[in-house]
Amino acid sequence: MIQTTEQKNNWYQSNFEMFEKSLNGESNSSTHALRRNAIARFNEMGFPTTKNEEWRFTNIAPIAKTNFKPALSYAANQVALKDIEPFVFHGTHRLVFINGHFSKELSSVSILPKRTFVENLATALKNSPELVGKHLAKYSKYDENAFTALNAAFLKDGAFIYIPDSIVLEQPVHLLYVSAGSEDTVASHPRNLIITGKHSQLSLVESYVCLTEDSYLTNVVTEIVLGEHSVVEHDKLQIESEKAYHVGTIHVYQQGKSNYTSNSISFGGSIARNTITAVLDAEGSECTLNGLSLATHQQLVDNHTTIDHAKPHCNSHELYKSILDGKSKGVFNGKIFVRKDAQKTDAKQTNKTLLLSDEATIDTKPQLEIFADDVKCTHGATVGQLDAEQIFYLRSRGIALTTAKDILTFAFAGDVVARVHIEPLKEQLEALIHARLGEGRQSRDTQ
Amino acid sequence: MLEIKNLHAGVNGNEILNGVNLTVKTGEVHAIMGPNGSGKSTLAQVLAGREAYNVTEGQVLYEGKDLLEMAPEDRAREGLFLAFQYPVEIPGVSNMYFLKAALNSIRKYRGQEEMDAVDFLAFNKQRMKFLEMDQSLLNRPVNEGFSGGEKKRNEIFQMAVLQPKLAILDETDSGLDIDALRIVADGVNKLRSKENAVIVVTHYQRLLNYIIPDFVHVLVDGRIVKSGGKELALELEEKGYDWTKGENEKAVVSA
Predict the structure, then answer these.
(1) How many domains, chain B?
(2) Shortest CA distance to A195 belongs to which of A118, A283, A309?
(3) Residue-number span of the structural domain to which B33 is assigned
(4) ipTM value of the model?
(5) Residue to test with chain B: of A319, A387, A390, A399, most B Cβ within 10 A
(6) What's the domain range around A108?
(7) What pLDDT, in 10s, does the model give residues B149-194?
């Protein structure tokens, strides 16, 4: 057992050395010190097992067992614009990454307000090292999480967004991560840093999509820092290959009276783990986390959320829903911390699961830790199946059984989808949900 | 149109229908009356295809076809309609979307062209008007937050949209005030024709003042113990259901 872990660490250590060489003299920078510390920490920790409370319901042994190679480069001609067309939204600033590498050719950023940046992180590290250095890796701690450590060790590129004070960015920013076919089983470790100034506004979409059916690992870390009175709406769509692994970690740090909303829609991969942590570190902030997972076959979709009420008078709302078909498995862990100072906190958490087959399962764990005495905190979790009376009602009006089930399932997903404000994204989600319901039905019919 | 022969049905081994016989012809209105627990609603649900009930014996022919062999949606597509006693709420599905899906699946089955949203709206306007229904009900989720009266009106509205050949109204009068009752009954009367038939299931005679039946049947302990014309309803109202108990015993003895 110990030996396997060591071998595994050797694998990533030797990968790291290979990666280091590919950096060409960049290895004296402060960023590189971060990488070195992170790989050292990863080597100490190794991958988590189900004995680790944070990973109790999600066995990542398949990830630990696979020798993923870092995707060191990308050929510009590998992917054409027409390949990614189905995933593109017009009227957005778009940054495209292929297997974790920035593609200038496929990206498109229109004219930006003064001092505003929407660019790749490698460019920002070169041109704005102070601004980046002030925030990078300050919120996502790699010393406790092996995947964050691995991401920091292989940190090279990703998105960098900076919105100065009082700027409202009209067009949404779309970060599109495409996994394309590769000879090797590769891992990409995109790193995103998003900073919004006081009274600024940003609408952000992250999509993780694939052009391959193969196995790969996407291990992304996103840090978002909200300035006072800023407003960020953040939609994340994740639809990876059914053989692939997705580990997405988002850290949100909120300053006074800022407003952050996340709508996280997961169609999963083989294993998908979405972790989002929001720290409300100044009075009067508001945080809304919504999530929808749709899994089928043998997929596992895990959502871990943490809302940390560090200061008084902050509100948080959370609605996570799962629709599980086939032999899929869902995990929801929702932590809410209310610190001693955080009086007048208003926190509400709701988790609802719809099981479409007898073999699908969910582990749901609301976790409220409250250290203040004048607060309002509620949580509720439900697990159920489609309502037989509703199905009969629809059928009695001439609607076919399968259509009736689809209508009701779609309605279950509807209140999360309705929270997405970007119309083309909403349409894409609706189409994807319909397609996924069809897949689930097929898998049940052939059983 | 409908021929029920010796129908026995129940739930979880408890027999509720105990040999029902009933024939309904095109153009007729039949009222089925009976005390609580006599099996009136069970009969309505069995005819609509509710799977919770097991049919243990008997036969139902609808336009010559074996109704009990048909899936609930196919019964609806063949022109059978049940107005529910307790219409279920369906959050997240708008009334408009639901009805359009229903109408189009029926039209498709009948080889008619599907209707688009614009035509569908125009098609509905007039029907909403005669049921004095507010247009906004179309955009609300199916029955969610509807008052009792609104739910019942919504059932008759669906009937008006789907234009069934055989409509079964299950206690449509319960929970309605006198004004709503009149509106709903007027709606049903407007939909009556020589081509269709209606079965009115009710506990009280009240609704039958507005929807005049051709035949009245009394259901007690899962079988029809007495049949007659519309005057039977008045007699029942006057004498109460206890009056028919003796009739049931007679029926059992003769059976």
Answers:
(1) 1
(2) A118
(3) 2-254
(4) 0.94
(5) A399
(6) 2-282
(7) 889 989 999 999 999 999 999 999 888 888 888 888 988 898 889 9
